[in-house]
Write a structure and sequence with these properties.
- With 191 residues, the protein is an all-alpha fold.
- The protein has helices at residues 7-26, 33-39, 54-78, 85-93, 96-100, 107-116, 120-137, 146-169, 173-190.
- The protein has a single domain (54-190), classed as Orthogonal Bundle (Tetracycline Repressor, domain 2), CATH 1.10.357.10.
- Helices cover 71% and strands 0% of the residues.
- Helix 3 (54-78) packs across helix 4 (85-93), helix 3 runs parallel beside helix 7 (120-137) and helix 8 (146-169) runs antiparallel to helix 9.
Length: 191
């Protein structure tokens, strides 16, 4: 059976999308290639028709995860008044719904400790993804000068990532909500 020319590209994107969600949910070491391929209806052997290595799949998956969250946050920011865009981003990021859906969220709170332990070559590639993420968010950050916006980005996102990580450790939704509300209040009155 012959497939249309776009079939391989469609399958590739399906694998990346599934892997992106699975890696955020299970971690980089928890997501097995065989499971990802099986869930896409493919064999483990078919993996190498699409990727040269697991690291290649990992980087494409991380890129997709950063793009997904950046798109969601940029859309939320763009739908508000320019001076309030960063506040809408904070409220979106620090929502209980976002916190509870690890596989759809930012890869930083889901994977930061694992990403920090990668080798130097992988860190360079991750850094490039972080720069793209930052550049998507900078226009929405508070401040007049680019340097002020960059500083605000690092302060705001570091706080949000940490708050999500801590909230996800809490066993009850009310406890998670308390952590998120505290971080939200702190950020919204700080800039």
């Amino acid at each position: 059976m012959r497939y249309p020319p776009e079939h391989k590209a469609d399958i590739h994107q399906q694998i990346v999308k599934d892997a992106s969600r699975r890696i955020r949910r299970e971690g980089m070491t928890g997501a097995a290639v065989s499971s990802m391929m099986r869930d896409c209806g493919l064999t483990h052997g078919g993996f190498y028709k699409h990727f040269g290595s697991k690291e290649e799949l990992l980087m494409e998956s991380l890129s997709a995860a950063f793009k997904e969250i950046a798109d969601r946050l940029a859309q939320a920011g763009a739908q508000s008044e320019p001076e309030a865009a960063w506040k809408v981003i904070v409220k979106t990021y620090l929502s209980l719904e976002y916190c509870d859906q690890i596989e759809y969220g930012c890869p930083l709170p889901a994977l930061a400790p694992e990403l920090a332990r990668t080798d130097k070559a992988m860190k360079s590639r991750i850094f490039e993804e972080l720069k793209i993420y930052r550049s998507r968010m900078i226009p929405f950050m508070p401040g007049r000068r680019t340097a002020d916006k960059e500083s605000a980005f690092f302060s705001i996102f570091s706080t949000m990532v940490g708050a999500i990580e801590i909230a996800r450790m809490m066993p009850e939704p009310a406890m998670r909500e308390r952590v998120l509300v505290s971080a939200k209040k702190l950020l919204l009155r700080s800039f």
